[in-house]
Amino acid sequence: MIIERLNQEHRNIEKLLAILEREFEIFDLGDRPDYEVIRAVIHYFEVYPEVYHHPQEDLVFAKLKIRDPAAAARVGDLAREHQNGAERLRRVAHAVDAILADREILRQNVDILVREFIEHERRHIMMEDRDFFPAALKALDADDWTEIAAASTVHKDPLFSDVVEDGFDALRAHIFRLEQEAEADRR
User: How far, in Å, CA of 92 to CA of 95, rounded?
Assistant: First the structure.
């Protein structure tokens, strides 16, 4: 089902936000984070959520506005939320590019941009999981889901599917390593 896939994509995005956060904790300490991983995370956010995830949500939201306008109003302006997130991501990408080009940029400014992006994304995902998805599940009928599925473009996640796209190898290895470390810490 579409909502299950969107929920799974949210869990995947949360993993990437945690990695970005860890890498910038290293940056905050004055050390050099893994910029290959950071750039891969940024690239992932530029591609998958913007091109595939958000358009899927937009289809569901359009149906929700028809079926339950009050619930849609409680969710708010989803398109604007997505645009704001994309703009925050662009600012993070420019800051990382500036660092890699050895341009003058205050660490504090980079930290603010990155933390703002991470916190916004987490709040956004939480809102969708708490408000948007349950409202859609309650309001939409089987015909709505069929129409949404027919209008959807199915695309394998370039990082979290069995077909990993070039450029995401380092990030996937990093995620796997972090998951192993987390599992070892839980034992």
Answer: 5
Q: What is the DSSP letter of 150?
A: H
Distance of alpha carbon 87 from alpha carbon 14, whole angstroms: 19
Q: Which residue has the higher pLDDT, 133 or 181?
A: 133
pTM of the model: 0.83
Q: For residue 140, what is the domain's CATH number? A: 1.20.120.520
CA 35, CA 23: separation in Å to the nearest integer? Answer: 8
Question: Tell me: the pLDDT tens digits for 136-170?
Answer: 999 999 999 999 999 887 666 666 666 556 666 76
Residue 153 has, within 13 A of its CA and on its CB side, a CA count of 10
Q: Where in the sequence is the domain holding 169, given as residue range(s)?
A: 2-186
**Token duo for residue 88:** 């925050």
Q: Could you give the C-alpha distances from 77 to 45, 127, 151, in angstroms and in order? A: 20, 12, 21
User: Based on the structure, what is the number of domains in the chain?
Assistant: 1
**Distance in angstroms (rounded) separating the CA atoms of residues 123 and 144:** 27
pLDDT at 69 over 80: yes
Cα 38 to Cα 32: distance, rounded to the nearest angstrom: 11
